Amino acid sequence: TQYVYRFGGGVSDGGKGDKNLLGGKGSNLAEMASIGLPVPPGFTISTAMCSRYYAEGERFPDSLREEVANGLAHIEGITGKRFGDVSDPLLVSVRSGARVSMPGMMDTVLNLGLNDETVEGLATIAGDPRFAWDSYRRFIQMYSDVVLGLDHGRFEEALEIAKEDRGVHLDTDLGADDWRRLTVRYKELVEEELGRPFPQDVHEQLWGAVGAVFGSWQSERAKVYRRLNAIPADWGTAVNVQAMVFGNMGETSATGVAFTRNPATGERAYYGEYLINAQGEDVVAGIRTPQYLTRIARETAGARAASMEESMPEVYAELARVFDLLEGHYRDMQDIEFTVERGKLFMLQTRSGKRTARAALRIAVEMASEGLISEEEAVLRIDPSALDQLLHPTLDPAAERNVIAKGLPASPGAASGAAVFDADTAEKRATLGEKVILVRTETSPEDIHGMHAAQGILTARGGMTSHAAVVARGMGRPCVSGAGSVFIDLGQRLLRVGGVEVREGETITIDGTSGEVMLGEVATVQPELVGDFGTLMVWADKVRRLRVRTNAETPADCRTAREFGAEGIGLCRTEHMFFDAGRITAVRQMILAEDEGGRRAALTKLLPEQRGDFEEIFRIMAGLPVTIRLLDPPLHEFLPHSEAEFADVAQAAGITVDVLRRRVGELHEFNPMLGHRGCRLGITYPEIYEMQARAIFEAAATVAAESGEAPIPEIMVPLVGTRAELRIIRELIERTAKAVFDEQGKSVDYRVGTMIELPRAALLANQIAEEAQFFSFGTNDLTQTTLGVSRDDAGRFLTTYVEKGIFERDPFVSIDEDGVGQLISLAAERGRTVKPDLKLGICGEHGGDPTSIDFCERTGLDYVSASPYRVPIARLAAAQSAL
Ligand code: ADP
Ligand code: MG
Ligand code: MG
Q1: Residues that bind Mg(2+), according to the entry (predicted)?
Q2: What is the rounded average pLDDT of the residues 85-101?
Q3: CA–CA separation, 814 and 808 (whole Å)
Q4: Which residues, 6+ apart, have CB-to-CB distance to 714 below 8 Å?
């Protein structure tokens, strides 16, 4: 097998289709080279080698040495330089690159090939000793950190001392001799720490770096990142070895990163940052504050330092041409790394850029309007789950804001929480249920877990492409970066800004859309679903087959859901209405009654209340189907649990505390999930379901009379396991309907159906379908009853099960297709054999989960039902699964 793939100088052994083998970076370097862009030549060692490296005890096969030698020869042939040559040395970078980008997670070494001899050659050939020694000190530090595993703290310290000695502040103020002296100090440090000298053999350097890049795949931070992003461990990383180009060759050299469109807003404008006389790492690490790429961006920010458009107009024009070319070629927004060496542009990386949900929408819609992609592609471009970011509240523009600082709007959205100053504290407090904002001078990959636990992130340093900004956007966390006036005092655990002090634990609010940082909590408002969002939803609805309903029982939820495009209610849980303060007393009276007469008396009080609820819902949902589930939970859930409440409840119910205690005891169940609940209540206490059916029919008749658009009630019987259960209750409902319609002298359309949430019901769906006009899969209970796992108790082992790969995903989040899914398709098929027009839907939590929605599409269900805020997500997911 071949493990080494070349690129550059008219050769491309791979291309953009080879991500799995060459990693994202490697395949795109090859692709850029093949379309004629200026890419420094190099080669990629494939991800397959990474797997083999680990399989064989972290060793390289001999055949690889030969392939790498050929790869080096390829670079030498094109550059005319030789690796290790003392007069004109070839220097390379050794870069990691997995299938998907893992920003800052993995290691890279620059300027490899320098030693005490080649550095002299480099100085002479470049005619610039300062540059050569600057490169060498960078190399020693990076190599010591990445390959030799030394803490970079002591190196930083040595650099600070060197600057102090010379009385300067910036790295760029140091000269050749300063850097030369620093390399001596650095090498001493290595020897002190390691007991052996810094490696001078360039081949030893190369193999050390290759091993370290493969090694970084198994680093702790990479593992955490993989877990958070569901990246399989066996993908491995590729290694890219590439000729160095130098952005640190003086004032005509530079390095930068750019997006072809704004990654925060999606605006069609180049967005980027660059640094003159610097190497790539400097931009991301926030060593100096980078300058803007475009004049517009500089002016908008009110920045003084010249933009690249102004300071290097020719290179900028060339770069802009490359941006357009790459965007057209990849048909997507690109995230690009480049370096300018003495006025000549080189491309070092391109990939589809990470973006906020808002930017994703705008970019997809605009690219479709520009004709770059089709409407269907635009629909497919948006990750449905990412819409979540947009569906949640933003800061109320009318609310008072006590702004204490301003930074860059690095990742949009608003967040409030307790200020915390390190990742561990963030995680600890979040686990205890507290909302926190992680405040750091700047973040590094070690902070990932804290960023994930936090509601939002605030940094004092770093630009729009800093680690904090990139990671926050990827995670969908609001972020304000580079709030320069914020000073964090880790010792005293507080932050200072202007005259204000915020201690750890005090609440602050950040607005990642404006960059503002505020004291205290600021009120929020609902977002409006207009503009690009609206456009994309129209496109999605055009291709969608599945209908989308909502799970809602309060008027407010019903209204939200309708605004979000719900096409009916798939699950209205009547028990929520029973808990209402005004009626819990009557509910308890009903439960505590000793006989049917007592129960009926209490139910008579509840009837008008329930009728009122349904009227309100029917009015909001005029013309749409409304599925109402009859009472489902076991009755004891409505009774008080603590002795303290007993006296009050007994008095309100007109019984003694002793009687109450006895009834509570009688109603106690060992396993309520499988107990006296669902249709079992309707079978034993028919008067309860009779009251509910009556309330539904009376409300429907009233609303039908007052509006032209009658609602279509669908009465749903829960927890049915046998045909007989459903028959008995269906007959009860029909009798009640007839009675109401006779009294009112008119009738309304309605349907009777059942939830399929017991395996027996799924297996006998053909029998049950004889009694039902619709099935709704109650996948929460169906998952519990099929897996024999109680959702409320699963927390203790489910995470371990997912970690060990026993379940691929949490079966309560995404349908267990092999098991539960099989029951669903079987029930759908058996039900439809009996009734071809049987309406099929799903109303569990899974109805808002994109993966499960895809399953519903494949299984041919008619609709999914999701919680109100997930309705747009479900609409988009349904459209994507139809494409
Ligand atoms: P990451 O994945 O962390 O971005 P990279 O491998 O892309 O790591 O490299 C880190 C930095 O070094 C980037 O800014 C990149 O542009 C720069 N760099 C990498 N290879 C070279 C090279 N051959 N010449 C000049 N700069 C390079
Ligand atoms: Mg990079
Ligand atoms: Mg259920």
Answers
A1: 757, 781
A2: 95
A3: 9
A4: 625, 626, 627, 628, 750, 751, 752, 753, 773, 774
- Whether pLDDT at 286 is above 70: no
Coil, helix or strand at residue 725: helix
Query: Left, alpha or beta for 588 (phi > 0: left; psi -120 to 50: alpha)?
Result: alpha
User: Of the residues 90, 102, 145, 337, which should be mutated to test ligand 1's pocket, given the most ligand atoms within 8 Å of the CB?
Assistant: 337
Which H or E run contains 496? strand 494-497
Helix (H, G, I), strand (E, B) or coil at 300: helix
Active site residue 843: yes
Residue 393: pLDDT over 70: no
What is the arrangement of strands in the sheet containing 487-489, beginning at the earlier edge strand?
487-489, 494-497, 500-503
Highest mean pLDDT: which range of 270-274, 722-726, 742-746: 722-726
In degrees to the nearest 10, what's the CA dihedral of 203, 208, 209, 214?
130
CB distance 464 to 481 below 8 Å: yes
Q: Which residues pair with 41 in a beta bridge?
A: none
The pLDDT score that the predictor gives to residue 790 is 86
Architecture per CATH, domain 254-355, reads as 2-Layer Sandwich (3.30)
For 595-614, b/e burial (b = at least 16 CB within 10 A) is: eeeebeebbeebbebbbebb
Residues 6+ apart with CB under 8 A from 777: 755, 756, 757, 824, 827, 840, 841, 842, 843, 844, 861
DSSP H or E run through 337 = strand 334-341
Q: How far is CA 18 from the centre of its chain?
A: 25
CA distances from 88 to 85, 91, 118 (A): 6, 10, 8
How crowded is residue 742: how many other Cβ atoms within 10 Å of its Cβ?
A: 10
Tell me how far the alpha carbon of residue 706 is from its chain's centroid. Answer: 46
- Atom 12 in ligand 1: which residue has the minimum CA distance? 280
Q: How far apart are the first and last CA of the chain?
A: 37
Task: Please tell me the class of the 757-883 domain.
Answer: alpha beta
Number of H helices, E strands in the chain: 36, 34
Q: Is 441 annotated as a binding residue?
A: no
CB atoms within 10 A of CB 243: 23
Q: Looking at residues 115-125, what average pLDDT do you find? A: 97
Give residue limits of the domains in the chain.
254-355, 393-525, 574-753, 757-883
CATH dotted code for 574-753:
3.20.20.60
CA atoms within 13 A on the CB side of 817: 11
For residues 561 and 868, the answer to whether their CB atoms sit within 8 Å is yes
Complex ipTM value: 0.96
**Closest ligand to 239 CA?**
1
Calpha distance 679→697 (Å, rounded): 19
Categorize the per-residue pLDDT at 251 as very low, low, confident or very high, splitting at 50, 70 and 90.
very high
Distance CA 68, CA 778 (A): 58
Mutate to test the pocket of ligand 1, among 108, 143, 216, 221 (most ligand atoms within 8 A of CB): 108
CATH class given for the domain over 393-525: alpha beta
Question: Could you tell me the pLDDT band of residue 474, with boundaries at 50, 70 and 90?
Answer: low
In this chain, the answer to whether the domains covering 254-355 and 757-883 adopt an identical fold is no
pLDDT at 578 over 90: no
Strands 254-259 and 271-276: antiparallel
Ligand 3 centre and the CA of 634: distance in Å?
Answer: 11
Active-site annotation holds for 676: no
Give the pLDDT of residue 392. Answer: 67
Interior angle at CA 768, CA 766 and CA 772, nearest 5: 110
CA neighbours within 13 Å on the CB side: how many for 811? Answer: 26
Tell me the torsion sign for CA atoms 23, 28, 33, 38. Answer: negative
